[in-house]
């Protein structure tokens, strides 16, 4: 799908991978709905790229439905969805203070996994009703997993569970939506320069980057955005997860 002139939704679009993707889509001529629970930061990004910002809690059905409807009313019906919203915690299954709090585990699953599916189902319901473009295509969905889906480290039980769930649903959802001409892909990034990473000491960042075989550095959000754009534009990409990680395989800790 050529993004030029199309409407795109980017969750978690106020910072990090989401912000880079929103800016890249806009640079290719898309009108971008920037969705984020931090609406003030989303408005800043939307203002820069000529898009529109809406507050959205991806894990809440009503909030997500209202945000998509708001973007559709302001910009038009979206054909592109990029899911970048997510949270992370580090906590062992059993630690010094006892077992992993179940509510914290549940929260990560609700935001990362259920939130991703929530956006997919609501977007796809609307996109399936649009007229088909060239080749029968009606929409493209790109979700964000992590290498933790495959190489989860100590303390990542909740995070890895949520991200492996996204990997696991990519193919069946792609098969579900094939008849509607909607493609479904997932990117599993390695260690990237996100706001969370930027808050770490430089020596920690350098150490993490050195663990990547090649290139031995942290990934740039623009590199994630470039792959998301390629997925949008390449109609044969469907039902698969692509690792974007410089060949890293995470150690146990």
How many domains make up the coordinates?
1
Order of helices and strands: EHEHEHEEEHEHEHHHE
How many β-strand stretches? Answer: 9
Fold-level CATH name: Rossmann fold
Taking the sheet with the most strands, its summary is: 7 strands, parallel
Mean residue pLDDT: 96
Question: How large a portion of the residues is in β-strands, by DSSP E?
Answer: 15-25%
Strand order of the largest sheet: 3-2-1-4-7-8-9
**What gross morphology would you assign?**
globular
- Distance N terminus to C terminus? 40 Å
Q: Give the proportion of residues in helices.
A: 40-55%
Segments where pLDDT lies below 50 for 5+ residues? none
What's the CATH superfamily, by name? NAD(P)-binding Rossmann-like Domain
CATH architecture group name: 3-Layer(aba) Sandwich
CATH class: Alpha Beta
How large, in whole angstroms, is the Cα Rg? 18 Å
Total of helices:
8
User: What structural class is derived from the secondary structure elements?
Assistant: alpha/beta
GO molecular function: oxidoreductase activity
Pfam families: adh_short
Family: Belongs to the short-chain dehydrogenases/reductases (SDR) family.
Protein name: 3-hydroxyacyl-CoA dehydrogenase
């Amino acid at each position: 799908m050529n993004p030029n002139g199309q409407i795109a939704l980017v969750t978690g679009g106020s910072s990090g991978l989401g912000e880079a993707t929103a800016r890249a889509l806009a640079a290719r001529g898309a009108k971008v709905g920037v969705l984020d629970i931090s609406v003030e930061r989303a408005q800043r990004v939307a203002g820069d790229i000529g898009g529109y910002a809406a507050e959205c809690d991806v894990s809440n059905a009503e909030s997500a439905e209202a945000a998509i409807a708001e973007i559709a009313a302001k910009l038009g019906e979206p054909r592109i969805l990029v899911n970048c919203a997510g949270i992370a915690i580090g906590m062992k299954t059993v630690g010094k203070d006892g077992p992993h709090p179940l509510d914290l585990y549940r929260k990560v699953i609700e935001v990362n996994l259920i939130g991703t599916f929530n956006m997919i189902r609501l977007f796809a319901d609307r996109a399936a009703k649009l007229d088909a473009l060239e080749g029968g295509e009606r929409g493209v969905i790109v979700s964000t997993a992590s290498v933790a889906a495959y190489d989860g480290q100590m303390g990542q039980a909740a995070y890895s569970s949520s991200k492996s769930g996204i990997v696991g649903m990519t193919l069946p959802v792609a098969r579900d939506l094939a008849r509607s001409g909607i493609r479904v892909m997932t990117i599993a990034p390695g260690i990237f320069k996100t706001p969370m990473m930027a808050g770490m000491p430089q020596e920690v960042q350098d150490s993490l980057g050195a663990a990547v075989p090649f290139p031995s550095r942290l990934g740039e959000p623009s590199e994630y955005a470039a792959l998301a754009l390629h997925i949008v534009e390449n109609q044969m990409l469907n039902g698969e997860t692509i690792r974007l990680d410089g060949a890293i395989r995470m150690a146990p800790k």
